[in-house]
């Protein structure tokens, strides 16, 4: 499977068929996954073929037809084993999908949870039914219908409800070293928070507690695993990555210090100045 490339917001938004949504056939647009930033979009994928999917702390080895649900906050990777791989993919942002409390609750369902059921086995009859729904979404996104956003959201809801009635796949292999896997998931999630593309889209995760909450683990468990594998604390790794980003923003943007501080999750510029001086030995202006 092609490696997913992170793109600036302005670039991938302009390439999506609708703002915050895109659907396509995998066999006809193999490079389409390059047009979105995975940290912003939920993903539903209906595929037929052999593959290995690493999702959070589990690895799934799948054959035939599956329905996969990707959460932008949970790291996953996909290795295609088949020479031929066909199906559909639909991408949607939380902003596009959430137009009521009812729809928001579906994103909190087991389908998108780190300890939930992201992969479902699909029968041939169910595959044909889901193919029809994906085809309707693809057709609708090209139409001129004034309310096509609402109609597409209904199609997404229909897929989610159909999925919630099914049983999850059980073809997962638990990693022997749970600490190593949890640390790997944390590090990938940490890296996915960057680069910071705009002062208007500040860093959301900047503490061990925040990462633990997203990963659905106790912060003490996360800290123990990270320390065991890396020899560093969770806080230190987060601080190191924020510092790398701070230096890049200072050297390669014209944002003022206050904008950079806010973009990196600091409530006040003074906090950022103190943080920077503690780790670098000088203030941000000196580096600039």
UniProtKB/TrEMBL annotation:
The keyword Transcription applies. It comes from the Bacteria. Pfam families: HTH_18. Keywords: DNA-binding, Transcription, Transcription regulation. Residues 212-288 form the HTH araC/xylS-type domain. InterPro entries: Homeodomain-like_sf (IPR009057), HTH_AraC (IPR018060). SMART domains: HTH_ARAC. This is AraC family transcriptional regulator.
